[in-house]
Amino acid sequence: MTQRYVLVLALLLTLVGLSMFVYKWQVLSFPLTENQETSVWTIESSISFDSGPGSIKVNLHIPTLTPGFRTLNENSVSRGYGFSLNYGSGGREAQWAIRRADGRQTIYYRISVFEDESSEQADTTPPFPPPPAINEPFRTAVDVIVAEVREHSADTTSFTTELLRRLNDPSPDPNVELLMSDVESDVDFVDVATMMLASARIPARMVRGFELSGRQRNADLEPWLEIHDGDRWRFFNPTTGEENLPDRFFIWWRGNEQLINVEGGSNVEVDFAVQEAHLDAVAIAKSQAAKSGATMFDFSLYSLPIQTQAVYAVLLMIPIGALVMVVMRNIVGIDAFGTFMPVLIALAFRETKLVWGIVLFTVLIALGLSIRFLLERLRLLLVPRLSAVLIVVVLLMLLISFVSHKMGMETGLSVALFPMVIIAMTIERMSVVWEERGPVDAMRGGGGSLVVATIAYIFMGLGWLEHLIFTFPELLLIVLALVLLAGRYTGYRLLELGRFKALINN
Amino acid sequence: MFATARKLREAGVLGLNERNAEFIMRLNPRRLYPRVDDKALTKQLALEAGMAVPDLYGIIDNQGDVRRFGEIVADHDSFVVKPAQGSGGDGILVITGRSKRKRDTFRRSSGLLITEAEIAHHLSNIVSGQYSLSGNPDKALIEYCVHFDPVFAEVSYQGVPDIRVIVYRGYPAMAMVRLPTRASDGKANLHQGAVGAGVDIALGVTLNGVLQNEIVDDHPDTGALIAGLEIPQWDFILESAARGYEVSGLGYLGVDMVIDRDRGPLMLEMNARPGLNIQIANGIGISARIRRIDEIYDAEETPAERAATARREFSAHRQLQML
């Protein structure tokens, strides 16, 4: 019965811990490993124009959504202008307005984005486009080409590829030539392609954006073709007909509208500058969480003051040490002095480093023990004797620090980090065991403590584990579940296998 | 590794984790622990239940009383000092006599001399709680020193051999004799190097001995054969052990008995967490016997009836081989 409760509880804890962990990892993008950096691109569009006499209204298409990217933040610098965001047919539009302005004006719009595989196009399926109204003789040309392409294709995707191949043919047939007669730019070309796809009742639209790479000035907007195959949007390279979207292709806006429309201004120039920066993934996750209003981050350690964070970075590893203790005692069966003494020693080892830690610990215990045996002759009462041992331990620490400093070994100074009360208790306990059960048992207990402390130190010092626990403290629920399970472990301890060997029936 | 664990499981060997989780936690309610952890209380409860225990000369329960020590032992040449809440035999001082020349100097069981001042220091350590399980202030018991029955004289080195009986739900399940050695400093504690010898519950006869998990035929100090010793008043010992269940209320219990030359079997102490070495001493796992007791358990049976049931059920598997 108890067994089942423990199992259920452990399962619940694991589930809660794991789901919180997965949520923070997948949804809030908390990094799994330390110093994980993510590229953040800041794209700045500067709009400049000569102001006219009257009021000015500037409409700029701005990015709405690109698969594989997420917005970190955006802002606009426009002194004196009123700013508003609208949704148009081509996605979001920023609008700046001012009653009066003098001279040449410059407005900045800046957006920072980062790559995120999990961001997908959350677009609804568009309706079938109505057949576009086309004048003769283009009407016939379009019908002929669409019919021919349909012959040579199986589905929407192959239709698009075939269509683009024909339109791009260096020696085009007369119908294509007719349609291409007015095409002067890539944009016009994609316009024609979307028109023809619409004739075939395929939802298609032009997207414009640019490939993000390092630092760019005057980045050129490239047109790309996007069609809907009834299931999802697909991207096509208009010049090659290949279905793809280049890595890091960032879509600025969709549709065939103009990028910008300035009422009451002239000589409009729009310039795009791209800059790449590396930001700590934690910082990105933080701002993402803040933006989406996820309260999870309020409970994250990163929201605490730096000093407190430093304390918790250490404290949160203590449960790991405790888990090591549980495994060593209940599953392996090693004897150690004091329940958590090895964990505290392991904490001290973090500062002294392992070899020096073991040396200092051994020296301290050995000196303390010999002085404890001298004290034994004085026949002191227990509490005063313990206090005397504690004072001696403090003095010994001081002595070790002095001696090692004089000898130029600065590591010796870190002896001060040993938990002196615990050391004093260990010395007392060890001396009692020494007297009652002999030096062998005392050494075995002391050695066992040191072994467990070393193993605990190794686990508590794992950098990736520390980062993981610090970023995802809910993983401690899983540690708790493991400890609970170990609490109901009724199998043999590893060392018992040897101890009871004689009882195996042959 | 897993194969070894499986074989041990098949042999019915009880491990520490299983003992703690399945038996101690389930059958030994914590509120009853003081009945066995405080030897003064154990002694009192046992006396009320009509069990034979060593006479109590005096209890010292505070530092001020330590000087009463001389007065308490004035009429006794031999006695034992023990912490009421000690564990594993820690803190027990056995005094077997006084120095001929100086009355305030005593002779320990090891033959070494110890002064009254040294004993007083030991007493104050006990009272401070140095040996108590929790580290809390403790009491020191000064009681009758058992003159052990010569039956074990050949197989003991100083100290007092005792008989440990594991009592499961009131039924004696397994027993062993613990024989002090030079290494154990006269203490009947297997951890400290005493020899453990299994006992055939049905016959009250010792089996082979075990020293530090190794099977031995002879006592390491005296060289005498360990197996085949007949324990006197075995019936009474088993019945007393079974009665420990009523006294303590604990379902998984270790009862320690000694046989005094003059007074017969005496109950020394009881233990709520008896060790598992008894399995090695008997050469058999305890699990099968525990299961058998669960089958035949009868709440109506008296201690004497339970002892008889145990004698009927648990004949040592090595019995035939020995005879």
Structural description of this entry:
The complex is a heterodimer of chains A (506) and B (323). By secondary structure, chain A is an alpha+beta fold. Chain A folds into three domains: 37-121 and 261-283, Immunoglobulin-like, CATH 2.60.40; 138-259, Roll (C8orf32 fold); 318-460, no CATH class. Chain A has helices spanning 2-27, 138-151, 156-168, 174-180, 186-199, 281-292, 306-315, 318-332, 341-352, 354-378, 382-406, 420-437, 439-460, 463-471, 475-487, 494-499, and strands at 37-51, 56-61, 69-77, 82-88, 91-98, 104-115, 204-211, 222-228, 233-236, 249-254, 260-263, 265-280. The mean pLDDT of chain A is 82. Chain B folds into two domains: 2-51 and 148-322, D-amino Acid Aminotransferase, Chain A, domain 1, CATH 3.30.470; 56-144, no CATH class. Chain B contains eleven helices and 13 strands. In chain B, the strands form two sheets. Chain B has a seven-stranded antiparallel β-sheet with strand order 11-10-9-8-7-12-13. Chain B is globular, with a radius of gyration of 20 Å. Chain B starts with a helix and ends with a helix. Classes of the chains: A alpha+beta (506), B alpha+beta (323). The A-B interface holds A 330, 333, 379, 381-383, 432, 436-438, 441, 487-494, 496-497, 499-505 and B 1, 4-5, 7-11, 13, 15-18, 21-22, 63, 90-91, 117-118, 121, 124-125, 128-131, 191-192, 210, 213-215, 276, 279-280, 283-285.
